[in-house]
Write a structure and sequence with these properties.
It contains one helix and nine strands; from the N terminus they run αβββββββββ. The chain is an alpha+beta fold and about 260 residues long. It has a five-stranded mixed beta sheet, with helices on one face. The longest helix has about 50 residues. It is elongated and about 90 Å long. About 40% of the residues are buried.
């Protein structure tokens, strides 16, 4: 039997063929990498929304133990009822990430301590106070660089959930939270906000200012919000433009849903 010698020799790739293969791989990578990045971002947004809903559920349990009164959105003057202890409270001290000045009320790296807030016994997990998405920017107050990495919370509470102001023994003014009965439409009243990294300096979001507290848009140019009934969803940055109709959903006692 005669065997052809050439059939036993493997044919090597030419340089042009190798370049073609590399080019095809590069094109596929260019197509797939953005898809993978988008899938990762979608997963992070979904995790963030899930975390915020867990916080909403904790609020529901808290209401049952507090005669229907919410935890306060902030606690720099009335810390015993604050859902998270505001970063500018002297009671936080060294429990927050290191700051140039631990008593600086505008230093955004000193933003809120969830473990010392009134909601903590109902959550017991610091992870659910924070979205997995990493973002950064400049602090609106000081102009200093700030990153999610040095912030303990990314979710903040509607500042309109505080109503009464009471005088304190030291001459300051304390705040109390609203009652559950005040909220006319819980399924259409924003309670928790995915606030922008550049404006987080305490545990509250003040919708009346617009330029000071900024809606977070780190999830596909949008962010998550959770209502008083613990329902929630993603909203685009465009729909959340300051003074748009969506801002009325921050008012617990409005007349229409």
């Amino acid at each position: 039997m005669v065997v052809c010698r050439n059939s036993l020799i493997s044919r090597a790739f030419t340089l042009i063929e190798l370049l073609v293969v590399i080019a095809i791989i590069a094109v596929l990578a260019a197509i797939l990498f953005p898809v993978f990045a988008q899938a990762k971002a979608s997963a992070q947004s979904a995790t963030c929304l899930s975390n915020m809903r867990q916080l909403g559920t904790a609020f529901s349990v808290y209401l049952g133990d507090s005669d229907g009164v919410y935890a306060a959105p902030y606690g720099n003057r009335y810390p015993n009822s604050a859902w998270v202890l505001s970063g500018n409270s002297p009671l936080v001290g060294t429990t927050s990430p290191p700051c140039p000045n631990a008593n600086d009320t505008t230093d955004i790296c000193n933003v809120a301590d969830p473990t010392r807030g009134s909601l903590w016994p109902y959550t017991m997990s610091e992870k659910i106070y924070k979205c997995p998405t990493e973002d950064s920017g400049l602090d609106h107050s000081s102009g200093n660089p700030v990153s999610t990495l040095n912030q303990r919370i990314t979710t903040t509470m509607n500042g309109n959930f505080a109503t009464e102001k009471i005088p304190l023994n030291d001459g300051g003014i304390g705040t109390l939270a609203i009652s559950e009965s005040v909220i006319t439409f819980p399924s259409a009243t924003f309670m928790l906000v995915d606030e922008d990294v550049t404006s987080r300096n305490d545990g509250k979001f003040v919708p009346s200012t617009g330029e000071t507290d900024v809606f977070g848009t780190q999830h596909h140019n949008g962010g998550n919000l959770v209502n008083a009934d613990t329902s929630g969803k993603w909203y685009s940055a465009l729909s959340f433009k300051f003074k748009s109709p969506m801002w009325t959903k921050f008012i617990p006692t409005r007349l229409v849903p």
